[in-house]
Design brief:
mainly beta, four-stranded antiparallel β-sheet, five-stranded antiparallel β-sheet, Jelly Rolls, 7% helix, 235 residues
């Protein structure tokens, strides 16, 4: 058995071995453990969903710094920017846990223009101008921006499929814990997959995506992967 530990600050990287690893027939590879930070953003200028336009005597705009937000974080930033707190805050968000949809509460005389940018898509609101005191999103909030599962791709893998297509997915998991936390992945029984026909392993490429194969940016946080190479006939 060969144990391989890989560290990187990139979610798509390749490691070249100074001393190549010799492969034998029936060699397999599996994920022993991994640690990644819940550090990807759901609100960012890149996604065009980081601005909230509202009317309070005049039209004003709040820009959210790139980050991972829930209703509480949204409210905290709005309060910090406006200097108005509690019921005096012009715009407040809440979540109906029964329907998993957002609620937007406006102070008297306040309007919110959801026709600009893509914040409405994240929160489930129709892109219109809101004037009512209490406004309910018409769709379920997509606060994760559709990142529901992470896929660990490995260039050595064969006999892996995603839906009806051959893939290089070594392992997949759902994020646990709140944004900003360290996610520890430790399969109780590691799943080993055949290594594609190689005499030597000169390099390994690792790539982390969401379930739609969109690249995930961990914004400079370190990712660690511990892989095991074993021979099926000897186990």
């Amino acid at each position: 058995m060969v144990l391989i530990t890989l560290d990187s600050k990139q979610s798509d990287f390749e490691i070249h071995f100074k001393d190549p690893i010799k492969c034998k027939p029936h060699d397999e590879i599996g994920l022993i453990s991994s640690s990644v930070w819940y550090s990807w953003f759901n609100i960012s200028a890149l996604y065009e969903n980081n601005k909230l336009r509202y009317f309070l005597n005049e039209w004003l705009e709040i820009t959210f710094p790139d980050g991972n937000y829930d209703a509480e974080n949204l409210n905290n930033h709005i309060q910090d920017v406006t200097g108005l707190y509690g019921d005096e805050c012009p715009v407040r968000f809440d979540v109906n846990t029964a329907t998993n949809s957002f609620i937007m509460i406006l102070d008297d005389g306040v309007q919110v223009d959801m026709t600009k940018g893509k914040l409405c898509e994240l929160l489930g609101f129709t892109p219109i101008v809101y004037t009512d005191k209490i406004n309910y999103a018409t769709k379920i909030g997509n606060i994760t921006r559709g990142v529901d599962r992470l896929l660990i791709h490995c260039s050595l893998v064969s006999n892996s499929y995603q839906n009806n297509q051959a893939s290089d997915i070594l392992y997949s998991f759902c994020p646990t814990g709140p944004p900003g936390s360290l996610i520890m992945v430790q399969p109780y029984q590691p799943i080993y997959l055949p290594i594609r026909g190689l005499d030597y392993i000169y390099s390994i490429a690792i790539r982390v995506t969401d379930q739609l194969n969109r690249p995930i940016s961990f914004n400079g946080e370190t990712l660690t992967f511990v892989l095991s190479v074993r021979n099926k006939e000897r186990e």
